[in-house]
Amino acid sequence: xxxxxxxxxxxxxxxxxxxxxxxxxxxxxxxxxxxxxxxxxxxxxxxxxxxxxxxxxxxxxxxxxxxxxxxxxxxxxxxxxxxxxxxxxxxxxxxxxxxxxxxxxxxxxxxxxxxxxxxxxxxxxxxxxxxxxxxxxxxxxxxxxxxxxxxxxxxxxxxxxxxxxxxxxxxxxxxxxxxxxxxxxxxxxxxxxxxxxxxxxxxxxxxxxxxxxxxxxxxxxxxxxxxxxxxxxxxxxxxxxxxxxxxxxxxxxxxxxxxxxxxxxxxxxxxxxxxxxxxxxxxxxxxxxxxxxxxxxxxxxxxxxxxxxxxxxxxxxxxxxxxxxxxxxxxxxxxxxxxxxxxxxxxxxxxxxxxxxxxxxxxxxxxxxxxxxxxxxxxxxxxxxxxxxxxxxxxxxxxxxxxxxxxxxxxxxxxxxxxxxxxxxxxxxxxxxxxxxxxxxxxxxxxxxxxxxxxx
Length: 456
Hints:
The protein has 17 helices and 19 strands. It is α/β, with parallel strands linked by helices. The strands form 6 sheets. It has a 5-stranded parallel beta sheet, covered by helices on one side. A 5-stranded parallel beta sheet has the order 7-15-9-10-11.
């Protein structure tokens, strides 16, 4: 995988259709097939139904885990789904993408007895899938209309959770989103194999079915409408802006084919009608160590890339991606190289030829270059070194902290009519489930601030 010391590297090879149709279907099927009824009952019976359940405490949305699992054991799947969705209205998606291995399942007391927690995420998916398959009567209904109107900016997890919570309280909600489809990262930013069969849109449709929520797609705040205008028109505003910026490599990035943002690659793949049409390099480098890096690297392999390498500047214990995600990548043919930082993008005839790296080490907790370099050949380089908040959309000026919007515990910003949550909010962990909790708490805070006035 290292570029030859002399001579020209092989010509770039980025193209679609590397595999046959059947192989694409196998590669991009559901990564974790759902439990059968028999499997779910057996797994539910493993739960101790703890009174002071550490798994519930570990869940950012506070789902009553023992309760929903007990209802599965009792055959009450609707009641189980209600327990989940009451605490987390996007519980179906979170069951698929939450890092349960470092949240609820890590806290499971079964770990101390047999080193295998109850499969809480799989049971949560089983219950919510059963409900969505046969929803029957609505689980939630709207309170009488309050006559209050709230603007939500961003139709991602935080914005959707906030909109749903406000609608339940009887408020009218208008969601403004720049994309063609609602869902945010659930629609555009997750590996295709994590959420198949258009589940993100099915979940959005369920959220909107409560009524009182209008979504205006293709509307970007700061371009098509100002935040000042929303503050003037609506009784309150919630910002679920996400992170629109992408960090630079910190080196010269030539404008040549083959260098792109990993988030754009993932979004293209998610929106492709046929994954076979998405081009991929034969040799792919992914720079970064988080979930986006893993998703981009694994999907590159699934598209037919022969060599895929994640390069991260620190050690495995420092990678933002969990150990489970790192194992997932490596068992699917991705090489992970630690302690290396980009030094130079290599070119050949106006195309990417690879990258030169410098080896790094930690000295007193500080990352330093060793001066030793090496090169890796590549047709494609995907940048996955983190995203940043773009404050231009957050006008009037809001107080920031560490480059994101500063709020109190309930999401209140420095402006009395504006709340914020999700990745744009300072201090978060950039988790879907945490974004949902931000939206949920902000909805309660907005409702209290509006005084719950009744009457249309």
